[in-house]
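Lab notebook page, bench 4
Experiment: in silico fold of construct C2
Operator: M.H.
Input chain length: 95 residues
Purpose: comparison with the prior construct
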Amino acid sequence: MKSELITGMSAGLLVILAGCTNTTPNLDAKFGDAVNQAKAQQIINPDASRNTDPVKGIDGRAAKASIDNYHKAYESPTAAPSGSIGTIGGGTTLK
């Protein structure tokens, strides 16, 4: 009886220890691949930092004036024009 008990406990211990092994299927091997692929696809030119040619287009003063005008437009916006927008037929205004 004692040997049967030891055999049974040994078999149970082996079953329990089998659950502790690291047998994850092929999930960990590809973990993060989708994120890395998405990041790589968002980079148009990976060698852009090596390009030392100046940017062609608008000069600095004109760009600053343009941005300043853009910001001023939101500081004090002009009033909406009043008029007959939204009228139907005999001059009735929708509200």
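Observations: The radius of gyration is 36 Å. The beta strands are 87-88, 92-93.
Next step: discuss at group meeting.
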